[in-house]
Amino acid sequence: MRDIGAVKIPLDLVLAEPGTRVLGVLSGSALVDRWEEGRVEGGLAVELTFTRDKNKVRVRGSISGVAGFTCSRCLEPFSGQLEIAVDRIFSQGADPALAAREWRMDDDVVHVEAGLLEVGPLVVEEVILAAPMVPLCREGCLGLCPACGADRNRGGCDCSGGEKETPFASLGVLLGRGPEGR
Ligand SMILES: [Zn+2]
Ligand SMILES: [Zn+2]
To answer: How many A from CA of 140 to the centre of ligand 1?
Structure first.
């Protein structure tokens, strides 16, 4: 599969043609330094179709691959499947003098210089938007004990953290208040 990292789509040509299909792989290295919540070791399979939608260009398709994450609760590494559906609209700028060169994505002020859309950065942007901001190894991850740092997913810890601690914690507060009142 070809690397689509450097592929550029001339958006004005899409308006004149039946459509353009981009099929290939984006190397995980394209995401390094851009995507902080995860990493892609192999590559992402990318399939995008650019079609004309009146005077706009619609991009639809999918991005998929395996990504590595670090659980934000227990700090354990885990891998997860990325399945991202892409559906974006590009439209030309309102200024007729710039219309041939300036395109915007959706309602964002994302300019596409000289009408050439770079596929690599678009894919990176889609991954950043779709992937979890707070990755969790599992839905009910118990995280680390705030007192001793033990992984609560692997069983209890010796410092009686969690719910069992509540009565003692209240007692601690009462004892602490005592001397202040005197
Ligand atoms: Zn976890
Ligand atoms: Zn503990």
So the answer is: 8
Contact criterion met (CB below 8 Å) for 124 and 34: yes
Q: Cα of 77 to ligand 1 centre, how many Å?
A: 8
Question: Ligand 2 mean position to 163 CA, how many Å?
Answer: 12
131 C-alpha to ligand 1 centroid (Å): 16
Q: Is the pLDDT of residue 112 over 50?
A: yes
What is the band of 110 on the pLDDT scale with cuts at 50, 70, 90? low
The pTM of this model reads 0.78
Cα(132)–Cα(175) distance, integer angstroms: 43
DSSP string, 26-59: EEGGGTTTT--SEE-SSEEEEEEEEEEETTEEEE
**pLDDT tops 90 at residue 46:** yes
- For residue 166, the model assigns a pLDDT of 45
Q: Any idea where the domains of the chain sit in the sequence?
A: 8-130, 152-181
Residues 11 and 7: their CA atoms lie apart, in Å, by 12
Tell how far the Cα of 53 is from the centroid of ligand 1, in angstroms: 43
